[in-house]
Amino acid sequence: xxxxxxxxxxxxxxxxxxxxxxxxxxxxxxxxxxxxxxxxxxxxxxxxxxxxxxxxxxxxxxxxxxxxxxxxxxxxxxxxxxxxxxxxxxxxxxxxxxxxxxxxxxxxxxxxxxxxxxxxxxxxxxxxxxxxxxxxxxxxxxxxxxxxxxxxxxxxxxxxxxxxxxxxxxxxxxxxxxxxxxxxxxxxxxxxxxxxxxxxxxxxxxxxxxxxxxxxxxxxxxxxxxxxxxxxxxxxxxxxxxxxxxxxxxxxxxxxxxxxxxxxxxxxxxxxxxxxxxxxxxxxxxxxxxxxxxxxxxxxxxxxxxxxxxxxxxxxxxxxxxxxxxxxxxxxxxxxxxxxxxxxxxxxxxxxxxxxxxxxxxxxxxxxxxxxxxxxxxxxxxxx
Length: 384
What we know:
Layout: H1 6-24, H2 36-47, H3 52-74, E1 89-93, H4 99-108, H5 116-125, E2 134-138, H6 144-153, E3 159-162, H7 169-178, H8 184-192, E4 220-223, H9 229-243, H10 246-254, H11 259-272, H12 278-292, H13 299-304, H14 342-349, E5 358-361, E6 367-370, H15 373-383
Antiparallel strand pairs: 1-2, 3-4, 5-6
């Protein structure tokens, strides 16, 4: 029992490593079972017949097999998201994550194109225990050595995310997912019935798509690594609630507006006004139309129903069957259509004093107003 010859030890180590790799990877990938005892017997017979040159050829063949297997297991991610080169991607390394798990996360988020190089450098460099936990900021398709250097150095970062004014729930979910901060599907599922404050509840608004819509305040946030979709929504809803001062709430009551109606109206103003000077005027147009029992006829509610925005809505679009269609239905839509900023909310509380009933935006986003339908059509023909 004097031990195995070097070539036998190498062969057994190779086979054991192959089996270990296959067991730790995707179960959909299969490799024929390798019987180490029979393989060793085969090797004993073969070793008596092969010269060192032939052994070298066999070793080269086995190396090619090994590299092919590695590509199958660790190869480039062909289904990765298309990210901008300067996109900031946040990835969190949690306690207990091994090299395979970390590499999987990096590939999934688009930081690495494939995991082989990263995995190999961790293993050969003995760096598994030197990677520090925390949240890191990366950019797409980085070199494995650069990613690993940050992880070993512990260059953790504060997570910041900016949600622009006018973003809807779907856009917020996509932005968070693109940054690696939330699961888009889970976020949308939570948003359907998310209502931590009484004024957010659907009540008679059964047709509302997302109860969270409009109530997730647009701002720049600092997130903690362990925050989930629910936590993020709670923080954003709390940010809005904290900004609705007692004076603003009193003003809404004075105008006979519920908070739900206030945010719904403000969301329409946010989507229709590109420039600050237009917000109070558009607010007044909406109030006057509501008071007269006229449909609001705002294109923004039609855009809300579409999968992608259109430069101009069509006559056919105004026929869409939906309670959100303010061409077909009078009054406010069932709920907000986006997250309004404070300027839009202020405009809804303090509208301009005008007699306008119509407005249309030109190609630069500036709105033009009129008091009669004939005037409105003439302006539309002029600016569109």
